[in-house]
C-alpha cells in the first residue's frame, strides 16, 4: 500500500484494519512483520500531520 499521500482519516482506518488482523491471529509470521511495519509507518505519518496541523492552528491564533 502506498502511504505517502494517504489522508489522515484513511491512515487511521487502515491502522484499525491492521489491528483487527493482528488481533485475529490468522496471519503468518511473515505477514505480521509486514503489517506491523505498515502500521508503524502510518502512525508516523499521522503524528506528522497532527504536528503540522497544530503548528498551523497556533500560527492562525498568533495573527
Automatic annotation (TrEMBL):
Matching Gene3D superfamilies: Exonuclease VII, small subunit
Its EC number(s): 3.1.11.6
Record protein name field: Exodeoxyribonuclease VII small subunit
Keywords on record: Coiled coil, Cytoplasm, Exonuclease, Hydrolase, Nuclease
Entry's Gene Ontology BP terms: DNA catabolic process
Any GO CC annotation of this UniProt entry: exodeoxyribonuclease VII complex
Class of the enzyme per the UniProt entry, highest EC level: hydrolase
Pfam families: Exonuc_VII_S
UniProt key word Disulfide bond: no
Domain of life: Bacteria
Any one GO molecular-function label of the UniProt entry: exodeoxyribonuclease VII activity
Residues forming coiled coils: 36-63
Family: Belongs to the XseB family.
